Amino acid sequence: MLALYIAFIMQFIEIEIVESVMGHIYSPEEYSSKQIPSLNDYDSARLQLTQGLRELVSRKVLYGAVFLGSVTYSDLQIGSDIDLFIVMESKHAELNIRDLASNVTRLTNVHFDIKAVKKEDAQMGHHNLLYFYVKTTKDFCSDWIIGNDPTSVIAPRSSWSDVQSEVRDNLIIRVDALINARVRTESDYSRAHCDFLDRLLTLPIYTAINMVRLKYDGQPAISGKRLSKEDTCKLYEQVDPCELSIILHKLILLKKRYRNALSSQDIGVNAYMQLLNEIDIAYPLALDFIEENCNYLFKTRLAPKN
């Protein structure tokens, strides 16, 4: 059923996939040459990017920008990327953003996950922003705005009227992209292979978080402070307390082992490649977790239609 629906929906849906959903897998060459950022590098990268973005806002190149994701709360770890949402005002904005981000990455080894839309497209609802992406940014990231609030000009898109279907269809597109990447990618620890491993390791966590958001009608928080990714994933047991939660737990432990290897950088390149291989062979487990959640959303409604 899911395979047929993937083929059907890909004809009609245009939901942009942010390739790096939660981090960055470093190649063995990057690991052996110590091209891994420290926590101080993350602070430096954020400050450099903030300075550059403020200049672009002052020049009317950008309308506004906002940091989101782990950099805005206590979940930032080595191996994370820095997430940023931008509304562009000038036709040259995209090139300016790309140049700024690449220069900061070159200096700090920190990678960015940037989502940018043109102001006029945002105001007309002609964008690919998902409901929970915008809602979570509005609810928790107001202290991280540069220039004007970019979410203030985002008009709703039609898919927001049925958030569960939007989440399900976006997951299906991501599953299709993961499968295609597996087919195209050699297990050679190249940049393309490491990018595939990043998707493989983080997409199940992204899936679990969105399932929890559906159940709670948004990102769970305590006293106005959002839960970390890890604590949000613990709530997934309320969606499926059995086999799928066990799979998720295994994948989270694998991701923790990878993050620990980045933090310590003391396991040697051969052991690091072995760890990448363990991530690689977890592909069937990760794919099964995501597909089963998609099937669940076909059968069970977690969120009402608006």
3D architecture notes:
- The protein is an alpha+beta fold and 306 residues long.
- It has twelve helices and six strands.
- It folds into two domains: 2-17 and 162-299; 37-153, Beta Polymerase, domain 2 (2-Layer Sandwich), CATH 3.30.460.
- It has a four-stranded mixed sheet. Strands 5-6 form a two-stranded antiparallel sheet.
- The radius of gyration is 19 Å and the shape is globular.
- 36% of the residues are buried.
Describe the structure in brief.
By secondary structure, the chain is of the alpha+beta class. Helix content is 56%, strand content 9%. Strand 5 and strand 6 form a beta hairpin.
Radius of gyration: 19 Å
List the quaternary state of the chains.
Answer: single chain
How many discrete domains?
2
- What's the total number of strands? 6
Give structural attributes.
306 residues, alpha+beta, 2 domains, 4-stranded mixed sheet, 56% helix, globular
SSE topology sketch:
Layout: H1 2-9, H2 28-32, H3 39-58, E1 62-68, E2 82-88, H4 93-108, E3 112-118, H5 119-124, H6 131-140, E4 145-147, H7 163-184, H8 191-216, E5 221-222, E6 225-226, H9 229-234, H10 243-264, H11 268-280, H12 283-299
Parallel strand pairs: 2-3
Antiparallel strand pairs: 1-2, 1-4, 5-6
Helix pairs in contact: 1-7, 3-4, 7-8, 7-12, 8-10, 8-12, 10-11, 10-12
